[in-house]
Amino acid sequence: MTVYRDRPDRVAALVQGDRVHRDLYLSEELFALERQHLFANTWLFLGHASQVPEPGDFVAQDIAGRPLLMVRQPDGAVRALYNRCAHKGAQLLTDESGNTGRFLRCPYHAWTYQLDGAPLGLPLKNGYEGTQLKACASGQGLSVVKHLKLYRDFVFVRLSDTGPSFEDYFGPVLGAIDDMVERSPEGRLSVGGGVLRNIIHCNWKIYLENINDTVHPMSTHESAIHAARALRDSHDPGAPKPMALEQILPFGSGHEFFDAMGARVFANGHSELGVNFSIHSNYAPLPEYEAALRTAHGPARAAEILQRAPQNAVFYPSLSVKGSPQAIRVIRPLAANRTLIEAWSLRAAGAPALLFERAMSYNRLVFSPMSVLAHDDVHLFESIQQGLRADGNEWVSLHRNHDAAETQQASVASPIRCRRLRAAIGAQRKAHRAANTKRIGKRCNAAMRFDGQRRPTDDR
């Protein structure tokens, strides 16, 4: 029995201004509708052009339940094809990635195709003479994903012929990719170090909504924070801080710090956290690298790039990016209660190796299934998925800081509610413009005093 298909009124009733119904996380019927209408009509992240540097290079990926191939063409273009032979439907390539040579060949009946999907050859041609093969879809070659956008080497696809244009859909959040790419003095990134994958038994929205959640770190990751503080206290204060401590300690910075980071929400579900500062704002400076950025981009743009270190930028519904460290997460929904999360590290051309090491280290520490932080999140995500099945309350609360008037705005920025922090941020921005090398985090931590007492935060 269907409850929601062909009943848009019932679907609309599941979302209220300050709460949503649990069926949005539990219903397989709604998940099928999401695949049909949301994922097909929006722009989804497919891959990065650096994964297919040479003609014939390919990456196989499932997007919204559809098997796709991202293939580098002989002329240097990147195309996306459906990974389905036009004959019997076998997948042409089942390896995750590789090089297919000068053409694509089906392993079942040896039908072949050019790299752009056009038909090339088939065995026993005489058997098809006088038939309607050439006039039907099976004779036209592979199906092509017609809507593909290559933006700063990030590859996005829209599976449906309907839906918004790429620029209209993403709008100003594309600036997060610009900042990420331009942290390379050469303006170029490449994927490196492999991909960390984790299948979590929860709805994809549970994971995605947590990405820019600033309330949970102090409680969810309490054990990891205590362990990092204990290691810090045993460390020689005069010695350089280990990278792992530099990346883990900020998670214990306190609710006031996280609340003051600031966020911006854009149309179509995109968002950015840490528009004022973030846990990434106070990494050790690299003077030679910063000088190279000033040479490449000019002093003003270099200062802007270095000053911005947002916590996360969400490209709804499939991608989250960090500018520093240069790491991305890809959200691949598999079922109403299963989600594949991929963590990728990116190497900035012309930048010191330390930047790539930071990305690799952060992904291992925070996003790996065996990390000191991810298992906290995974446990709770899966607990939420189970808990929502309980009798009684059928709604998920979104009441914190809810303002009904904001729903009519194209974008919304969160206010800075702490007066001392607001003043500190203003002073920090002024100092940064003068020196180009200051970091926001240290001064914000110094400003976190109230009633003569220092908040329990970490000096970073």
Attribute tags:
23% strand; 4-stranded antiparallel sheet; globular; 460 residues; alpha+beta; 23 strands; 32% helix; 16 helices; disordered C terminus
Could you give the topology of this structure?
Elements: H1 8-12, E1 15-16, E2 19-21, H2 23-26, H3 28-41, E3 44-48, E4 57-63, E5 66-72, E6 78-82, E7 97-99, E8 104-105, E9 112-113, E10 119-121, E11 147-151, E12 154-158, H4 166-170, H5 175-181, E13 189-200, H6 204-211, H7 217-220, H8 222-233, H9 243-248, H10 255-260, E14 263-266, E15 271-273, H11 287-297, H12 299-307, E16 312-315, E17 319-322, E18 327-335, E19 338-348, H13 353-367, H14 374-387, E20 395-397, E21 411-413, H15 419-435, H16 440-447, E22 449-450, E23 453-454
Antiparallel strand pairs: 1-2, 2-20, 3-12, 4-5, 4-7, 5-6, 8-9, 9-10, 11-12, 13-19, 14-15, 14-21, 15-16, 16-17, 17-18, 18-19, 22-23
Helix pairs in contact: 11-12, 15-16
Write up this protein.
The protein has 460 residues and is of the alpha+beta class. It is 32% helix and 23% strand. The chain has helices spanning 8-12, 23-26, 28-41, 166-170, 175-181, 204-211, 217-220, 222-233, 243-248, 255-260, 287-297, 299-307, 353-367, 374-387, 419-435, 440-447; strands at 15-16, 19-21, 44-48, 57-63, 66-72, 78-82, 97-99, 104-105, 112-113, 119-121, 147-151, 154-158, 189-200, 263-266, 271-273, 312-315, 319-322, 327-335, 338-348, 395-397, 411-413, 449-450, 453-454. The strands form six sheets. The protein has an eight-stranded antiparallel beta sheet, sandwiched between helices. It has a four-stranded antiparallel beta sheet with strand order 6-5-4-7, with no helix packed on it. β11 and β12 (154-158) form a beta hairpin. The longest helix is centred in the last third of the chain and has 17 residues, at 419-435. It is globular and about 80 Å long. Mean pLDDT is 89; it is low at 427-460.
